[in-house]
Write a structure and sequence with these properties.
Strand content: under 5%
Strand order of the largest sheet: 1-2
Distance between the termini: 88 Å
Number of strands: 2
Order of helices and strands: HHHHHHHHHHHHEEHHHH
Largest sheet: 2 strands, antiparallel
Helix content: over 70%
Mean pLDDT: 80
Structural class: mainly alpha
Shape: globular
């Protein structure tokens, strides 16, 4: 679908103006913190980073699957698709601006309005608009369903791993998934009401983008790089694929990702601008309260889980913290470490035993 829209858009009159607007950089926009936040969170959301989807889907792989190579393929294919889709979108917007006799800056709109308002209007200006409308919205529906597959599978796998004796019996998993889909459907009805576009922007800004994903990225990179240990994580990957990743990857876990995400978050807070709908309607104060409640509802689970782990542990507080930071004992690399430790201990005790026996003979 994307390729069909790309070819059709590039053959339209005025497409060049749209492509020029798409590719020509505007350095002044780099001073806007919203640009950095949108760029960073778009990468997070597009790659499903910090959402649990990659972890869940990766858990179905074999232990020796080359996850290092797969991560590069994921980045190249995902960003390449996004880059091509920009040509399909902005070529049509350039045609729309020329057809209406207006500047393309008034046509190119960011956010959900581009998909659900501006682009459908541009499609109506094409010959055979019904055909192109069907192509465009079928692509949008397929993308939405595809995203829901990954998100719901992530939730259901988590439930099945935490409560295996309850979920993995009969058709309980399917029934639980049906209940979850029904709840999501009921909440989704709010988004197709007359105020649906306003509610959608609150969810889009606070729940699946913005400070939530930035904080999650900071937490995860600090945990991997400094608490669990970047070197230990590299050893785990080496045990899986047979070689260590580039040293650059390790330094990104240690310094790059935490510093960039922290800087973006601080920049966002210092240059905070109110949330607006279509750059005209400013949300009331209670809408911001709902948004921050939705954002914190997922983040607050991190300290709650940490406190529960420490409370259920044994020993002093420091011992509980160290035990919670240890890798899982059923990892093959941990089994190798334990076997090497046992071998060294046996060799040491065996040496002492033979030494004492020879002394006795003397």
């Amino acid at each position: 679908m994307l390729f069909v829209l790309f070819v059709r858009g590039m053959t339209l009159p005025g497409a060049f103006h749209g492509i020029k607007y798409y590719l020509y950089p505007n350095p002044a926009r780099l001073a806007d913190p919203q640009v950095w936040m949108d760029a960073g969170t778009q990468i997070f959301y597009s790659y499903a980073i910090c959402l649990g989807c990659l972890t869940t889907l990766g858990s179905y792989n074999k232990y020796n699957n080359n996850c290092y190579k797969d991560s590069f393929y994921l980045c190249l294919l995902n960003s390449g698709t996004s880059f091509i889709s920009g040509f399909a979108i902005f070529s049509v917007l350039g045609y729309m601006s020329e057809k209406m006799g207006v500047d393309i800056t008034t046509v190119a709109e960011s956010g959900p309005g581009l998909v659900f308002i501006v682009y459908p209007q541009a499609v109506t200006l094409l010959p055979w608009p019904q055909v192109w409308s069907v192509c465009f919205f079928v692509m949008i529906i397929l993308l939405g369903i595809d995203g829901q597959f990954a998100g719901l599978e992530s939730i259901m796998t988590s439930f099945a791993d935490v409560f295996p004796s309850h979920i993995r019996k009969g058709y309980r998993r399917e029934l639980c998934l049906l209940l979850l889909c029904a709840l999501c459907y009921m909440f989704g009805l709010l988004l197709v009401s007359e105020a649906g576009a306003y509610i959608l922007q609150i969810f889009d800004h606070y729940v699946c983008s913005g400070p939530t994903l930035l904080l999650m990225a900071i937490f995860q990179s600090v945990i991997i790089g400094w608490i669990y240990g970047a070197e230990r994580f590299c050893d785990n990957i080496e045990d899986m694929i047979g070689y260590k990743p580039l040293s650059l990857i390790k330094y990104c876990w240690l310094y790059g990702t935490p510093l960039i995400c922290s800087g973006t978050l601080v920049f966002l807070l210092l240059r905070y601008t109110p949330l607006r709908f279509n750059n005209s309607y400013e949300y009331p104060w209670w809408a911001y309260c709902i948004g921050w409640f939705l954002a914190m509802s997922s983040l607050v689970l991190i300290p709650i889980t940490m406190i529960c782990k420490l409370v259920k542990g044994e020993g002093s507080l420091l011992q509980r913290f160290k035990a919670s930071s240890q890798p899982a004992g059923d990892l093959p690399v941990m089994a190798k470490e334990m076997s090497s430790v046992n071998v060294s201990l046996n060799a040491r005790h065996g040496g002492k035993h033979s030494h004492s026996k020879s002394n006795g003979n003397l």
